[in-house]
Specification:
Distance between the termini: 30 Å
Structural class: alpha+beta
Shape: globular
Helix content: 10-25%
Strand order of the largest sheet: 4-5-3-2-1-6
Radius of gyration: 15 Å
Length: 148
């Protein structure tokens, strides 16, 4: 069986407290192959309601703020969608360039957006539509780069 060169996971978890009744938080986990093509390195990418919460951040956009599979305070995360190899590589490229291409790194609003779900839907594009609990998924993001 062929080992994957790259993998990207779209994950979600219920938001804590009262908003968790109706809302989920989405993020992406990007895995890259290391030696002998084993998936070893992974990074969690998400927009967080508070800016600049760790060393790998660009405004509200954070890399590895939390552990890759950790929920956000209202139960565990769940895998929503997984992409592998070529499709994963194109998504990973968009995720990893997002500090320079996502137009809302310095803006966050719970409703109507932009928020974590705006970012996740922007990355996923037409590949998947986030669930009904993904408040902010429909916030319009200007298409700044036609080839991403």
């Amino acid at each position: 069986m062929k080992e994957a060169v790259a993998r990207v996971e779209l994950r979600s978890a219920k938001i804590p407290s009262f908003p968790g009744i109706v809302a989920d938080h989405y993020w992406l986990v990007v895995f890259h192959a290391a030696e002998r093509r084993q998936l070893q390195k992974c990074d969690r990418w998400e927009v967080w309601q508070h800016a600049c919460q760790n060393e790998s951040c660009w405004g509200h956009l954070h890399k590895n703020l939390l552990n890759p599979f950790q929920g956000v305070g209202n139960g565990p995360s769940q895998l929503i969608k997984q992409w592998i190899d070529e499709e994963a590589m194109s998504i990973a490229k968009k995720v990893e360039s997002s500090p320079h291409t996502y137009p809302f790194i310095n803006n966050y609003r719970y409703w109507p957006g932009p928020n974590s779900n705006t970012f996740a839907q922007w990355i996923a594009g037409e590949k998947i539509k986030l669930g009904s609990r993904a408040i902010g998924k429909n916030f319009p993001v200007p298409d700044m780069h036609q080839n991403t």
